[in-house]
Amino acid sequence: MKDCSVLVVGGAGYIGAHMVDVLLKAKMEVITLDNLSTGHRDLHPGGIFIEGSLGDTKLLDDIFSNQRIDAVMHFAAYSLVAESVTSPLKYYRNNLAATTELLDAMRQHNINRFIFSSTAAVYGEPTRVPIAEDHPCVPTNPYGASKLAVEGMLHDCDVGHGLKFISLRYFNAAGADESSKLGERHEPETHLIPLILKVAAGEREHIKIFGTDYPTPDGTCIRDYIHVSDLAQAHLLALDALLSDKGSAIYNLGNSRGYSVREVIDIARKVTGHRIPAIESESRPGDPAVLVADSAKIRKELRWQPRFEDLANIIHSAWNWHQLDKVR
């Protein structure tokens, strides 16, 4: 894979930047396209950087005409569940319509390998846990629905145009790379672990627990957390599979272990040594009670083996990065 050239759309974002770093360390050529609406130029690890939108057809034509690209990785989606409920068209416009332009530009330039950043939100409220890839997909919010629509479009492009894709359905990405150069920085921040760490760092007064009457042991939502570096390694394996002509596939990415919101807060208290006050609030629309992955398929077919399965280690890496980022 050393001679491979990859276009990373959204490569200045949290997961995208980690992916660019992994690709560069694997001695690949990397071109990043990012409009910096949620990404950060200072977190971009290197390679060629192009500021712009995945829906800009002229820019896409210029990139594909002037750069050698063997595969495309797509991380540039809006991903806030609550916002998707109140602003659904924003999500369909970016996550679906703009992705259509990207795929059409790829088709026109005969680029037929695509790795898609999908989500566990495509499943909706699960009827069985852990969730395998053959679980029915009934999203409960426009974010999940927009991702599922892209997966359907990818399947059709495979049949109609020979596009080979791997869709990776993330559960909850968290943590930071071991060097603490890259981490999770969102504006505004909505993800649970970085919000908890902001409380531990004295940047917020408390953490809100959204919903305490879910059908779970302690009444709070349960989620499966996966370290961002393990996520990036899974993408590298997916790229190798596509370059080896193994065909299109869909995989879950999670550790197959769920933690409730209260459990995450308690573990963060132990990791940081801070009290981390929490207050209870009403549940948010569109949030399923339990999302835990069955990731046996990717472990078997791509030989993926996560290195950071323990949540305390995931939170510890995020805490190290957060403290350093405050003083950068």
Tag the structure with descriptive keywords.
328 residues; Rossmann fold; UDP-galactose 4-epimerase, domain 1; 13 strands
Commentary on this structure:
The protein has 328 residues and is of the alpha/beta class. It folds into 2 domains: 199 residues, Rossmann fold (3-Layer(aba) Sandwich); 104 residues, UDP-galactose 4-epimerase, domain 1 (Alpha-Beta Complex), CATH 3.90.25. Helices cover 39% and strands 18% of the residues. The chain has 10 helices and 13 strands. The strands form 3 sheets. It has a 7-stranded parallel sheet with strand order 3-2-1-4-5-6-10, with helices on both faces. Strands 7, 9, 11 and 13 form a 4-stranded mixed sheet that branches. The protein is globular. The model has no long low-confidence stretch (mean pLDDT 95).
